[in-house]
Design goal:
By secondary structure, this protein is mainly α. It contains 19 helices and two strands. The N and C termini lie far apart (87 Å).
Length: 465
C-alpha cells in the first residue's frame, strides 16, 4: 500500500481521515488476517533460511539465492506488520503512544519494505536466469552461467545496490505533513514531498516497470523456456530408449509404464512454473492495477477513497501472502528441500525433549538393556547356527560363548542390581534422605517371555552345559 498521498488540496482539507477509515473491515483485513499471514510468513521464512544456511547438500547445489530470498522475505513481512496492522489498530483504538511511534518510523520502514521487495524480485529473476542457462547445451549460455556462479558476492551486492538506488530515494521523497486545523488524530499525515507532475509520474512508472513488470515478464519467459527444454530432452531420451528396447525385442508393458514415469521431471518443472508465476502474479497484479488507477483517474480515487484503501490493503496482504507461499512451493516442487525441512523440524522437536536422567535410573535401565539384549541374542541363534553349519569350528566357538553367557546371565543381573542398590543407599545417606527405597529384582522390567517352543537338539545341548 502507498501510505504516502499527494500533498494536494484533498490531503490539506483533512480528506484522508485516517482515524475514521480505520473501521471494522480494515481491522479484519489488516489487524487480524494481515497479522496472522505476516506471522506465519516470518516463521516459514526463518525456517527456510535455517534450512538453506545449514544444509551442506543444498549449499552444494548452488542455493544461494533462496537463502537471501528467505531473509528479505522476513524483513518484508516484519515491515508490513509495523506499517499497516499497527496503524489500523492504533488509530482504531486511539492508542496515542503507538500513533506517535508510527508517525516517527513510518518513512524509514516504508523505504526498507520497498527495498526488500525489490531485492526479492531481482533474486527471483537471477535464479530463473541461472536455471535457464543451466539447461542450455555448451555455449555462451554456459559461460554466462559460470560467470554468475563464480561471482556470487558481486552478483548479490549488485542486486542490493540497484534496489537501494531505485527505492532508497523514497526516504527523501516523503515527509510528514502537519495539519493543525484537522482533528487530533489526523493532524500528522504521511505525504509525498514534491507535488505531482510529469517528473514524478516518470519516476513512479520507471520504478514500477523496472521492479514489477519487467521481473514478471522475465520470470514467465525463463520458466517457459525451461519447461520447453525439459520436454525436448525427455522426448529425445524416451525415443532413443524405446528404439533400443524395440531393437532388442523387450518392449513390454513395464517399459511403457517406465516411459510415462520418465515424464515426472517435466511435471515437476511445470508445477514449479505454475506455482511460482501464479504466486508472483497473484501478489503483484493488484498493485499494477492500482498504479494505473492512481495516474489515469486520480479524481476517482478522491471520490472512492475508502474503496481505494480496501483494495490497497488487499494488494499489500497479497504481497505478504506471496512471501508466505515460498516454503510450500519449495516443498511441493523439490524433494530435497522437503526432506531438509523435515529434518530441521525433527531436530527442533528433539531439542525440546528433556535429556537429564538420574544416574540410578540410567543404571536401572542399563540392566534392562543388558537383560533384553541377552534374551534377544538367545532367541535368534538357531537360525545363526543353521547358517554356520558349514563352518564347524566357528559354530562350536559361538556355541561355547553363548553357553557361557546363558550360564552366567542371572549372576550378572544380580550383581548389577545389588551394585545399584548399594550406590543408591550411599547417595541417599550422603543427602540425608531417610526414605530409603530398596531396588529389587522385581523392579527390573524385562520383555515378556516368549511362548514355549518345541524342544530342539540345540536347547538340550545348552541345558547339559
Amino acid at each position: 500500500m502507498e501510505l504516502f498521498r499527494a500533498n494536494d488540496s484533498f490531503t490539506r482539507s483533512c480528506g484522508l481521515q485516517m482515524a475514521a477509515n480505520a473501521d471494522g473491515l480494515r481491522f479484519i483485513i489488516d489487524g487480524v488476517i494481515g497479522n496472522v499471514v505476516a506471522s506465519i510468513s516470518v516463521i516459514f521464512n526463518i525456517l527456510l533460511f535455517y534450512v538453506f544456511s545449514t544444509s551442506r547438500r543444498l549449499r552444494r547445489q548452488n542455493y544461494a539465492n533462496p537463502v537471501l530470498l528467505a531473509l528479505f522475505d522476513v524483513f518484508t513481512s516484519i515491515c508490513y506488520v509495523l506499517l499497516l496492522p499497527l496503524q489500523v489498530i492504533s488509530y482504531r483504538y486511539d492508542v496515542r503512544t503507538m500513533i506517535g511511534r508510527w508517525i516517527g518510523y513510518v518513512r524509514i520502514v516504508h523505504c526498507i519494505q520497498h527495498v526488500c521487495v525489490t531485492i526479492c524480485n531481482f533474486l527471483l529473476v537471477v535464479a530463473s536466469i541461472e536455471r535457464l542457462f543451466a539447461n542450455y547445451p555448451e555455449g555462451k549460455q554456459k559461460t554466462v552461467l559460470v560467470f554468475l556462479v563464480k561471482r556470487k558476492v558481486g552478483k548479490i551486492m549488485a542486486i542490493i545496490l540497484i534496489a537501494i538506488f531505485m527505492k532508497g530515494t523514497l526516504l527523501f521523497e516523503t515527509t510528514i505533513e502537519h495539519l493543525p486545523y484537522c482533528e487530533e488524530f489526523d493532524r500528522y499525515v504521511p505525504v509525498l514531498a514534491s507535488n505531482p507532475g510529469t517528473f514524478v509520474a516518470i519516476l513512479y512508472w520507471g520504478r514500477k516497470i523496472s521492479t514489477v513488470i519487467v521481473p514478471f515478464i522475465i520470470l514467465i519467459y525463463c520458466n517457459y523456456r525451461i519447461v520447453r527444454q525439459l520436454r525436448m530432452k525427455h522426448r529425445e531420451n524416451q525415443e532413443q530408449s524405446i528404439k533400443k528396447r524395440s531393437i532388442r525385442g523387450n518392449l513390454t508393458k513395464s517399459s511403457i509404464r517406465h516411459y510415462y514415469r520418465e515424464k515426472r521431471g517435466v511435471r515437476t518443472a511445470t508445477k514449479t512454473l505454475v506455482l511460482v508465476v501464479g504466486c508472483y502474479l497473484l501478489s503483484n497484479h493488484v498493485s499494477i492495477i492500482l498504479g494505473f488507477w492512481e495516474y489515469l483517474a486520480p479524481s476517482e480515487i478522491k471520490q472512492y477513497y475508502y474503496e481505494y484503501l480496501i483494495v490497497s490493503d488487499v494488494a499489500s496482504l497479497l504481497t505478504v501472502f506471496g512471501c508466505l507461499m515460498r516454503l510450500p512451493i519449495y516443498c511441493v516442487s523439490d524433494v530435497r528441500i522437503r526432506k531438509a525441512v523435515g529434518r530441521a523440524l525433527f531436530r527442533c522437536r528433539v531439542r525440546t525433549i528433556p535429556t537429564e536422567v538420574r544416574q540410578r535410573q540410567l543404571d536401572k535401565w542399563s540392566i534392562v538393556v543388558v537383560s533384553n539384549s541377552l534374551r534377544s541374542n538367545l532367541t535368534g541363534m538357531n537360525n545363526l547356527f543353521a547358517s554356520q553349519e558349514w563352518l564347524p569350528g566357528r559354530s562350536k566357538r559361538a556355541r561355547d560363548e553363548l553357553a557361557l553367557l546363558l550360564q552366567n546371565r542371572r549372576k550378572i543381573l544380580v550383581d548389577m542390581t545389588f551394585k545399584l542398590a548399594a550406590d543408591s543407599k550411599e547417595e541417599e545417606h550422603s543427602h540425608g534422605d531417610n526414605n530409603t527405597r530398596e531396588v529389587w529384582l522385581t523392579d527390573i522390567l524385562e520383555e515378556d517371555s516368549l511362548p514355549d517352543r518345541r524342544n530342539s537338539q540345540f536347547r538340550s545341548l545348552l541345558a547339559n552345559v
